[in-house]
Amino acid sequence: xxxxxxxxxxxxxxxxxxxxxxxxxxxxxxxxxxxxxxxxxxxxxxxxxxxxxxxxxxxxxxxxxxxxxxxxxxxxxxxxxxxxxxxxxxxxxxxxxxxxxxxxxxxxxxxxxxxxxxxxxxxxxxxxxxxxxxxxxxxxxxxxxxxxxxxxxxxxxxxxxxxxxxxxxxxxxxxxxxxxxxxxxxxxxxxxxxxxxxxxxxxxxxxxxxxxxxxxxxxxxxxxxxxxxxxxxxxxxxxxxxxxxxxxxxxxxxxxxxxxxxxxxxxxxxxxxxxxxxxxxxxxxxxxxxxxxxxxxxxxxxxxxxxxxxxxxxxxxxxxxxxxxxxxxxxxxxxxxxxxxxxxxxxxxxxxxxxxxxxxxxxxxxxxxxxxxxxxxxxxxxxxxxxxxxxxxxxxxxxxxxxxxxxx
Length: 408
Prior knowledge:
The protein is an alpha/beta fold. The chain has helices at 17-25, 51-54, 96-103, 132-151, 154-163, 168-176, 183-193, 204-218, 233-243, 254-265, 281-286, 300-317, 322-333, 370-378; strands at 6-10, 36-38, 41-49, 67-69, 72-81, 108-114, 221-226, 249-251, 269-271, 278-280, 336-338, 362-364. Helices cover 38% and strands 14% of the residues. Helix 1 packs parallel to helix 10.
């Protein structure tokens, strides 16, 4: 099944980007591991509510990819490790050119920030560093990159724009297509700032506004404040919370999530990804289970670490935040899960005699129509008609949403 969109992970060295990527792609034993596509790409798992619960068939939901447990589904989503982020990337410093070239393929970004303040701008150990600086200079690097490319040839762009009597959307798309843009994204960019001024009259300040609005549309960014269990994290979180849109910020501890999943796989604890609860053998015995759930007994070191993790992360923040990072990226993109089936009555996807339902799930962006979904799945194959739940025909121009045209 198609696996776009692509979520890019960015972050300076030692911010915890690799740990975050590992925690997002370290699928549980229910899923059976994760797939590395190439050294920079991997498959993560987005947690969603599955349509099987809505239609009361959770006991027969058997995804081809990912997993579904009691109506909670893990859907594969492609992740890109965007390496080489250092100040001056737009000038080619570090792996700057490769960083920016990789960046343009992403539909959304997860910026992993070391909120402990124990690594400087280049990822070297320090104490008391202000991590809000990292957030500002990531954006400044992207702005400088796109603005620089545009202004290098702004004079000729304007002359051609006038000569061919193009619209602002047409001219900008000609320049922004290299960043993976579409005309729709460019149109939304101009709508975002309500720009009516003719392109040939734009000042440098107007160009700056357009570039910033384009970045907001093309690269919606989740700010993943990592290492929240560090003693210095609280003051930095408080400062960043005053500076950033709270809808774009997620608090997380990737190392904690990796540790909990490892112990759960080894049979020492009972832990569900994204949960605030961890049960040890001793906890279950205290709750009346004489066998302790069949769990192994923890040594003192790991027992103390579990208790500290509960106090510093799980009980304070409600979870390690890792699952929420990917969910927030999906939210910013307006992703909708769509469930293509062979029969809209039985919800089967395979052979007619198969009892398994909702085998496939595709993530589509906001504004996607039923016809767009059909083309995404079927490619160029002709489509006679599309049916919704109960066998009713659905017009191809109908939009899809959760609970609306999402099973067809």
